[in-house]
Amino acid sequence: MEEFQVGEYYWRPCAEIMTIPDGRIYYIPIFDHLHSDVQFDFRDEHYHIDGRFEMEPRMKQQFNCWDGYTAAVIVPEHSSSYSFLSIASTKVKCERTQTGLKLPDCPNEKQLLKIEKYHSWYRTYIGKSCEGKRCPHFSTEMLEKGGYLVCPMHGLTADIKSLLIID
Fold first, then answer.
1. What is residue 167's DSSP assignment?
2. Are 74 and 44 within 8 A, CB to CB?
3. Total Cβ atoms within 10 A of residue 99
4. pLDDT band for position 104 (50/70/90)?
C-alpha cells in the first residue's frame, strides 16, 4: 500500500486544465482511471479528484474540495468552466491522508435519484473481497479510515480484518 506523509511532495497524476474564459492553467490531482458510472446515471467519462494533495485555492472552491472530499470530477469532454488539456505527472504536496466521494447533504430531486441508484449499486458489492486491499470495483487501492478500508473513488467500505465489503 502506497503511504503518503503529510507535508511531503510526490509525483502524482494531475489533470491539466485551462479555465474558461481567463485561460489560466491548473493541475488537479486525480486517480488516473478514466471511466463512466452508468450504473448511477453518470454517463460522461471522468476522473476522480485525489483530495489528499494540494490544489490551488481557486480550484478547491470550483471543485468544492476543502476537506479532501468532493462529489466533483474532472470530465475531459463537455465542461463549460474548463478545457481539459492532458494528464501530467506533477510534483504536489500531500495535505492529508484521506480523500473520497462526498454525497450531497441536502440533495435536490435529480441528485436524490442518482444517490438511490448509487446505494442500489453499492449493495451489489456487499460481501465481495478486497483482496490485496484493493477495491473490487476498479481495483483502486483502499485507504484506511476509522478502522475500515474505504475506496477513495466510490466509497465502498470494507472490514479491515475480513477484507469484505460491508453495509
1. -
2. no
3. 25
4. confident
What is the CB neighbour count within 10 angstroms for residue 6?
10
Cα(3)–Cα(59) distance, rounded to whole angstroms? Answer: 25
Q: Is the dihedral of CA 24, 28, 32, 33 positive or negative?
A: negative
Contact predicate 31/48, CB 8 Å: yes
Q: What's the residue count for the chain? A: 167
Q: What would the grid cell of residue 47 be?
A: 476522473
Amino acid in position 17: I
Phi, psi for residue 2 in degrees, rounded to 5:
-70, 125
CA–CA separation, 154 vs 31, rounded Å?
12
In this predicted structure, what is the pLDDT of residue 1?
Answer: 61
* Average pLDDT along the chain: 94
Q: CA dist 73 to 79, 127, 155, 160, Å?
A: 11, 28, 14, 27
- Output the nine-digit C-alpha cell for 161: 480484518
- This prediction's pTM: 0.90
Q: Quick one: which of 107, 125, 129 has its CA closest to 116? A: 107
